[in-house]
Amino acid sequence: MDVKAAVAHKAGAPLTIETVSLDGPREGEVLVEIKASGLCHTDAFTLSGDDPEGIFPAILGHEGAGVVVDVGPGVSSLKKGDHVIPLYTPECRQCNYCTSGKTNLCQAIRVTQGQGLMPDGSSRFKINGEKVFHYMGCSTFANYTVVPEIALAKIRQDAPFEKVCYIGCGVTTGIGAVINTAQVKPGDNVVVFGLGGIGLNVIQGARLAGANMIVGVDLNNSRKELGEKFGMTHFVNPSDLEEDIVPYLVDLTGGGADYSFECIGNVNVMRQALECCHKGWGESIIIGVAGAGQEISTRPFQLVTGRVWKGTAFGGAKGRTDVPRIVDWYMDGKINIDDLITHVMPLEDINKGFDLMHEGKSIRGVVTF
Ligand code: NAD
Ligand code: DAO
Ligand code: ZN
């Protein structure tokens, strides 16, 4: 079939809206009509050329929601008409990672997904007979896409696509980092670096977990009001400080953060996030994705004296199990998504959506089809 997609032909170039040919679903695959897709910093990162796994031409997008239109042979958990959220971290429930109980990083289709291909090693997308790569197993910047069954979370039918698509990445990553990875407890002091689409969800996760101080750090003062709406108790703009930010935060939190979260992708900030943690027990969680070849550093004595460095992908969530629950939290009013979706636009305006992100004017832009 012919589908409408925003195609990334090469790093650094704007996306182009084109008609792309899409083959139907094969064994274990599902054809999904995408109704809405969020624009995440990670799509922009891949488009910039900084992503070591970036392959072109590709159809980017990994934060979508839509409806099942057709299923391939052997698909048993989904049927036509089901509402779904594609998962860039699948959940096969069978591989040794899934059954370990220690990680959400299912490896069942990891190799081909990293190559921009479906599990059988081929692509379903073509332009003029030439292969176009999938992205993160999702490719949600197209009005139809094909996704493996194990990479689809079935969600309730009354959830609005243009809101719950955000659960496909930003919401789950931020809230999950707090609840699954850090396991923040009531009364803990938390510091969040970077108050964008991920960091604000870390803040609402910390509030849900009953944190005491929730300190937000950002260079953009316009993030203060929104941060406070989501539960932030203190705001720090490092450029307004006359002293180094690390001793400032250690002092503010009465000895250091119980948990800190880096939600930017800046390796210097990652060091600050570790070093503002409490001696003896403070844990710092890296969420931000740094550019190709970049490295983190600290004095090993920071770890010897009890601080812990961790990272998290998709908030440690097992998507087929956890995503439908997070959709319920949204529908029950337990979490706020509406105030984070600042711009909704047709697919044709997707490049404007990325401009708004780069200018710091949007939290989440969403394209609809
Ligand atoms: P964003 O651009 O919306 O937000 C980043 C925020 O950081 C902005 O508010 C910006 O003003 C602030 N900032 C930039 N430099 C700063 C500095 N030096 N000090 C303080 N604040 C600074 O980005 P996002 O969508 O929230 O994504 C954040 C990061 O998380 C990205 O690196 C993205 O690739 C990554 N990410 C990771 C996962 C995962 O599973 N680990 C999932 C999604 C996104
Ligand atoms: O190696 O098993 C694996 C999974 C690698 C992909 C993890 C992606 C998480 C970070 C990228 C940001 C997603 C939007
Ligand atoms: Zn698995």
TrEMBL record:
Its EC number is 1.1.1.284. The keyword Glycosyltransferase does not apply. InterPro entries: ADH-like_C, ADH-like_N, ADH_3, ADH_Zn_CS, ER, GroES-like_sf, NAD(P)-bd_dom_sf. It catalyses: a primary alcohol + NAD(+) = an aldehyde + NADH + H(+); S-(hydroxymethyl)glutathione + NAD(+) = S-formylglutathione + NADH + H(+); S-nitrosoglutathione + NADH + H(+) = S-(hydroxysulfenamide)glutathione + NAD(+); S-(hydroxymethyl)glutathione + NADP(+) = S-formylglutathione + NADPH + H(+). Its cofactor is Zn(2+). It is an enzyme of class 1 (oxidoreductase). Residues 12-367 form the Enoyl reductase (ER) domain. It comes from the Bacteria. Keywords: Metal-binding, NAD, Oxidoreductase, Zinc. Belongs to the zinc-containing alcohol dehydrogenase family. Class-III subfamily. Has high formaldehyde dehydrogenase activity in the presence of glutathione and catalyzes the oxidation of normal alcohols in a reaction that is not GSH-dependent. In addition, hemithiolacetals other than those formed from GSH, including omega-thiol fatty acids, also are substrates. Also acts as a S-nitroso-glutathione reductase by catalyzing the NADH-dependent reduction of S-nitrosoglutathione. This is S-(hydroxymethyl)glutathione dehydrogenase. It comes from Sneathiella marina.
